[in-house]
Amino acid sequence: MVIVLVAIAVNIKLPQGYKLLVVQSGSMEPSIPVGSIVLTKPTADFLSPIPSARFEKGDVITYGAGNVFVSHRVEEVIKEEGGFFYKTKGDANKDVDQKLVAEKDALGKATLTVPYLGRFVNFAKTPLGFLLMIIIPSLYVIFSELLVIISELRKVRSKIPASGIALPVVLIFASGLYFINGTSAYFSATEQSNDNIFQAAPIFTNHVVISEVQIKGTTGNIDHDFIELYNPTNTAINLNGHRLVRRTGTGTTDVNVKIFNNSHTIPAHGFFLWASSVDSTFPSSIGANVSTTDGLGGNASVALRLGSLDTGTIIDALSWSNNVVALVEGSKFSSVPDSGQSIERKALSASTSTSMISSGADEFKGNGFDSDDNAADFILRPSSQPQNSSSSTETL
């Protein structure tokens, strides 16, 4: 009876937006142990004359982060001009997560946890589990049915063994495990991290990213620096409250590059461009949306922050330095760009320097790939190509 009930629960079609997810790491322990199954429930927006957040402090929410889903507890609800944002933290982590979670990016609230059942699900997806739970029982059922057919052909009465009902139920249950997590029956390896990893998220990330950086212009134009931002979402994003910051190779504190205000908006799937005005003619020559007399020469990392210097939430960061206190995601980018070169974010994980340049296969697919690893997310362009908010939008 227990097997039958579990088989039905696993194979039943969940209501729209509900998800069954398997926890792969321990940032929410002890409340959600590794190997648990979590049911995430979508929370609809309420129709109210006063805007209100969908989630409250203390709720465990699931959201997309790079190429994974993460489930962490809400530590603080922040109201910005663009809507509500959530500061989250794993129960087992010492620090809060670096990036705020936008309201529209939260999948829902974790409402039910079944400890350790997910370990059984993970085993079923291994080669050995697939063999023991699918292949061998299937062959046994097929063989048994062949014997029944042969017996019928010989007009010999044959009683169906007790296992004739139990085995199909087990097969239904086992095959249903492959639909938890929204996956098919394939073998995969998952690296452990400090977050609760569930399943692959969309290729494009869900927040503004640093899409291209030039730290040295062509010969004779050493001060021609720029930072290009890209909005991979379907909605225009206002940059009010955000700032571009930089750090030197040994610096431990931020230096302002540009503080944005309410007049600065990035179009959906569009770009926004800052340029250094040390050479006063440079910003207008590339159509920069904003400029300051700051420069990037001699620095080793840049970031887009929401909030104050040093303590504000890092929305995105890029480093080309070995400095351990640099503003970086994952590992630093491997090359320091030379004169006229730039560091550009990929459109896809498989994008290359060849596919991203003019006439390349990924030239107009945007710059939305973000695995939170500078070394994997960027390529070195042989010649920079800055774009601004008036440039054509790009997406996959």
Automatic annotation (TrEMBL):
Keywords: Membrane, Transmembrane, Transmembrane helix
TM helices/strands, residue ranges: 128-150, 162-180
Listed Low complexity bias regions: 382-396
Keyword Nucleotide-binding: no
Cellular component terms (Gene Ontology): membrane
One GO term (biological process): signal peptide processing
EC number: 3.4.21.89
UniProt superkingdom: Bacteria
Listed GO MF terms: serine-type endopeptidase activity; signal peptidase activity
Stretches assigned to the LTD domain: 196-322
Region Disordered, annotated ranges: 352-396
Name of the protein in its database record: Signal peptidase I
Species of origin: Candidatus Woykebacteria bacterium RBG_13_40_7b
